[in-house]
Amino acid sequence: MVERIALYPGTFDPITNGHIDIITRAARLVDRLIIGVALNAGKGPIFSLDERVALVEAEIRPVAGKAGIIVEVRPFSSLLTQYAREVGARMIIRGLRAVSDFDYECQMTGMNYRLDPTIETVFLMASEHHQFISSRFVKDIAAFGGDITSFVPKHTAETVMAKLKKGEA
Known about the structure:
Elements: E1 5-10, H1 17-26, E2 32-38, H2 49-67, E3 70-76, H3 80-87, E4 91-96, H4 99-115, E5 120-125, H5 135-143, H6 154-166
Parallel strand pairs: 1-2, 1-4, 2-3, 4-5
């Protein structure tokens, strides 16, 4: 039997409870899950690529242990389909929060299919209590001193607030 490898890509700046939810649920569908942390400098991340990889690794460690599968975190800076081929993924996992996400994701899926029709995109709807969470909103709330502890894991919240306090973001 061929190993089912999936890629869950994102900027993860920072990783949210919504991301963790999708990762946890995706891990039940595959034999190996690769979390691809995208360079994506165009989004103006507050964390460097290495910092984001380290945060994701720290936060998904418990998920990987419970899932009983291999969950890896890797940085990437290429086309998504190219990277999926490089890591042997035949499935791209994408999380959907709302109709607005669907429009963008539908276009992206079409383009990815044209680039490589052997790679399928699988959408997982965000759980109801995570549908409104986005990394952008988390950063905005944190920048104004708001409480982000219900949107991100504890370690991530502490790291975000420490970075903002130092003025590094």
